[in-house]
Amino acid sequence: MKVLVVGQGGREHALAWKIHQSPLVDRVFVAPGNPGTAAVGENVDCAATDLQGLVSFAVDNEIDLTVVGPEAPLCEGIVDLFRERGRLCLGPDKDAAEIEGSKRFARELCEKHRIPGPSFWVFESPAMARSFLENRPDGPIVVKASGLAAGKGVVVCKDNEEARKAVTHCLEQVQGGGDGSIVFEEFLEGPEVSLITLTDGETIVPLEPARDHKPVGEGDTGPNTGGMGVVTPVTLMPRVSQQMETQIVLPTVHAMNREKRRFRGFLYAGLMLTQQGPRVIEFNCRLGDPETQPLLLRMKSDIVPLLVATAEGKLNTVDAPEWDPRVAVCVVACSGGYPGSYKKGVPIFGLDRIDAGPDLQVFHAGTRLAGRDLVTSGGRVFSVTALGADINTARQRAYDALEKVEFEGMHYRKDIGITAATSRA
Ligand code: AMP
Ligand code: GLY
Question: How close is the Cα of 47 to the center of ligand 1, in Å?
């Protein structure tokens, strides 16, 4: 069969790499892809946001399955468009993708269907949000813009003064302006877990729990990013794993059905494991980046039957994935200045010095070829993912590989997985 992957980041490189290994697949296309995906598939010169271009490519080339990486095309309705043109496309349709596209919708869904999350307040305008702050006792609070903001529309504030400043900042981050609303959330504490579940709206297949590291700086300092590194699996008490499934994932899938927004695809729950139990921090309507990279390195079985069965609404007919029991650590190398502004076109040296294999992979993200030279083209440039019998071995392997690479301004967190090595949720 022929598979098209939509996107150009590390997540899509990992997806293309995994799909390419399937004996069911003859050709993998990636639109638009990056220099890494070109090694495991054929890049197609079509942006992930050019929905008409993508559907025409799929029709003309008789693509059997399209897998969408990023949220923007899902929120724009790529799945609805493919369905109209008779092409199988894995992901939620436009209505279901709103679970990520509107934080307000997600919060109101949780409230209505009693899915545990923080207390929250929604404001239509910055002025209303600021006047709320004047009348509340001082203390920590979380400020979020309602629309899509590539992980940058959230500020965790220690007091009302910080929150006042964050209101303007968050709104500026929203792609396309969003609906202009601001959500304030109660500040929750506890270890975080990303739980991504494959679902066709009836059957659920949770993937292994993973832990992202969102802030740019070591020790979780500095502004939030799209994700600086991930470790998986995360050791959880059996009671907590069960609560995540029965109190969060299943009720959410059912709630979406009751709202007539049946969710098909990867449902990503960002959870805070509080003293009172797991709480939803956010939902995403897709696989995480960089969570996908270490998850797919650990997935031993073929992913393609799962993808096809989900898109066809027959997830109950296939086996759950088999996982490598080892730990995977993924570390993301970024451009100088990210998540703020950064230079592009900076030459990258030494990626070819890394010995990739089944236990260690480099996935490209913001890279491009300038003639024969590999240069930077984005904030998160590439990631290294390594497997190890324990977390320290996996960390050592990933960091040893990263040391072989340099580019001007390159930075990465040196502490990915350290809390996971020392704590248990
Ligand atoms: P989000 O993009 O909504 O996942 O938020 C990004 C990060 O901000 C999360 O991974 C958390 O570390 C933090 N965060 C978001 N919401 C809350 C909350 N209600 N309480 C504490 N931290 C939060
Ligand atoms: N790594 C977080 C995300 O993909 O949203």
Answer: 29
Q: Within 10 A of 136 (CB to CB), how many other CB atoms are there?
A: 12
- What pLDDT score was predicted for residue 425? 46
Angle, CA of 123, 127 and 130, to the nearest 5°: 80
Q: Do 211 and 300 share a domain, yes or no?
A: yes
**What stretches in the chain show pLDDT beneath 50?**
421-425
Query: Structurally, how many domains does the chain consist of?
Result: 4
In the reported structure, the alpha carbon of residue 152 is separated from the centroid of ligand 2 by a whole-number distance in angstroms of: 11
- Identify the pLDDT of residue 167: 87
Residue 98 Cβ contacting ligand 2 at under 6 Å: no
Identity of the amino acid at 317: T
Whether the pTM exceeds 0.70: the reply is yes
Q: Residue 424 has what pLDDT? A: 45
The CATH number of whichever domain residue 129 belongs to comes to: 3.30.1490.20
Q: Give me ligand 2 centre to Cα 268, in Å.
A: 9
- For residue 141, what pLDDT is reported? 96
Q: Give whole-number Cα distances, 44 to 8, 55, 68, 195, in Å.
A: 11, 12, 14, 31
Between the CA of 281 and the centroid of ligand 1 the distance, in Å, is 6
Query: 195-205: b or e for each residue (b if 16 or more CB lie within 10 Å)?
Result: bbbbbbbebbb
State the closest ligand 1 atom to the C-alpha of 117, by its place in the atom list counted from 1: 19
The residue range of the domain holding 372 is 327-421
Ligand 2 atom closest to Cα of 212? 1
Tell me, yes or no, whether 153 and 57 share the same domain: no
Substitution candidate for ligand 2 out of 212, 230, 267, 281 with most atoms within 8 A of CB: 212
- CATH code of the domain containing 8: 3.40.50.20
